[in-house]
Structure formats: structure tokens, C-alpha cells
Design goal:
The chain is mainly alpha-helical. It contains six helices and two strands. The relative contact order is 0.20.
Length: 82
């Protein structure tokens, strides 16, 4: 059984004002695949995760993680995790 891969794809995509369709075309995926990844219904392959990260100019670990991400407000305002 595969472990869930957590992601910030929807947030990053919205920040960059990129549609699912545009991202999908840029990385060679189907737009529905991008939606499945964003909703946590599908884990991207390593290849696809790397292509998505490259598209946004971010390290892959900024977009994908095996652990849940801390809320962005905690990271921005420096709140500590319990």
C-alpha cells in the first residue's frame, strides 16, 4: 500500500495564477490528474512531481511531502508546532 503524499499544489498554482489546464499542458499531464493530485486522490510519480516543481521553480519538497504541511500562517508568523 502506498503512503499518501501531501501537497501544496493548489495553493502554489493559485499564487502563480496558473490554471490546472495550463499546468497540465506544461508538465505533460492531463488536467484531471492535476486535480486528483491537489485533492490527495492520486500520488504523482517522481518524474511528474519533479516536472511540476521545475515548472514553478521550487524544490520538490516545497510542494510535496510524506508528512502533512504546517499551515502557511504558522510558517509565515512563526508559530511553533505542538
Amino acid at each position: 500500500m502506498s503512503e499518501q503524499v501531501h501537497n501544496r499544489l493548489a495553493v502554489v498554482r493559485a499564487e502563480h495564477k496558473v490554471s490546472r489546464q495550463s499546468l497540465a499542458e506544461a508538465v505533460g499531464a492531463h488536467y484531471q490528474t492535476i486535480g486528483y493530485i491537489e485533492r490527495g486522490q492520486y500520488n504523482p510519480s517522481l518524474d511528474l512531481a519533479l516536472r511540476i516543481a521545475k515548472f514553478f521553480g521550487l524544490p520538490v519538497e516545497a510542494l510535496f511531502s510524506l508528512e502533512p504541511f504546517r499551515p502557511l500562517t504558522d510558517e509565515v508568523y512563526g508559530r511553533k508546532q505542538p
